[in-house]
Design a protein that fits this description.
The mean pLDDT is 93. It contains 14 helices and 20 strands. Helix 2 packs across helix 10. Strands 3-7-8-15-12-11-9-10 form an 8-stranded mixed sheet. Strands 17-16-18-19-20 form a 5-stranded mixed sheet, with helices on both faces. A 3-stranded antiparallel sheet has the order 4-6-5. The chain is of the alpha+beta class. The chain folds into 2 domains: 303 residues, BirA Bifunctional Protein, domain 2; 89 residues, Rossmann fold (3-Layer(aba) Sandwich).
Length: 413
Amino acid sequence: MSEEKIERDHKKLGKQLDLFAFSNSVGKGLPLFTPRGAAMRRILERFIVDEEIRRGYQHVHTPDIAKLDLYKKSGHYPHYKDSMYAPIVIDDEEFMLRPMTCPHHFELYLTRPHSYRELPMRIAELAGLYRYEQSGELMGLQRVRTFCLSDAHIICKDEEQAIDEISNALDLIEYVANVLGLTMGKDYWYRLSLGDRKDTEKYYDNKEAWDKGEDLMRKLMQKRCSEFVEAEDEAAFYGPKIDVQMKNANGKEDTAFTVQYDFCMPDRFDLTYIGDDGKKKRAFVVHRSSVGAIERIMAFLIEHYAGAFPVWLAPEQVRVLAVSEVHNDYAVQIHQELKNAGIRAELDVSKDKLGKKTHKVTQLKVPYTIIIGDAEVKEKNITLESRDGGKIGSMSAAKFVERIEAEYPKQNK
């Protein structure tokens, strides 16, 4: 098992699969993604954005930096001060690299009045965030100092709507996990993270709201028949949350996704809407992440699949290999046909022996290999080999495209 853990470690596989690197000149905890790693990021980002839009989320874009006063207003600065970067002084004003997105989304909500008919309003973003992690806590892609979070904040008209939205967010999380090949209870599990009424410095001081919020979330999980554990003193400072927990290859537990119930920020930001009686009413807020930080979920998936990703997720789906130089022109033609069809294909027309070329493909764990030799040029076909099933045989390039498309999860390509 120890050897298997080493072989699954995403730091080792990240180098072998040419996905990401780190540079002392750039800085600790600041990953550099190669073209292959960037491709995998794009796949995950496009998948989650498309799925969220299908489910009624409005994707926005907000700055990676804001005035320090914004984080004082939200309460994040005193609570997260030690994990935030030092203020940047610009024109006698202090700015911060953002450690979270919620204040930005709240300010966007406040740019105009809203009616109860617009709620719930699901504001989502793939947001670049920055947090100062201690050097000893940094670990590959799992704990970094800059990351992209699939973040969202749902403005609700009442507690009942907020709980419904939490349930909808859990439905989305479970769908995403299923598409990613993760099984509840085996690969991930739920944790209900609770606050501490006595610690008013760490947590927003409203005992009644804490009692009600935790009770509502506990009853929701019971209603969903979801198994969960409870954890004291693990909540956000503004409310209880449901965390999706996973373990890495070394057995360390981390939070991958989270859904949070917030009864603090609506007061701090005066988030309101116009009710059906024409009067202003206080809104409720749900914070949620559907796939977590792109970097962290990449680390989990690298280890989960030991680098042998399913076709839809593989940064390179097929490698086209020319047996010798005389086959290069046809190999180039096939490669272009595949790229035109949206297949992530790479081409090797080097002078290396075929054995050396196929060894590279094996090291990179590419799902499919296409061999182009005399027979293929003559018959205008391809010979296909599979990472998992060995030699498949001769077929047309169009037939291969159909084969790959059939391996995509529904509603995702």
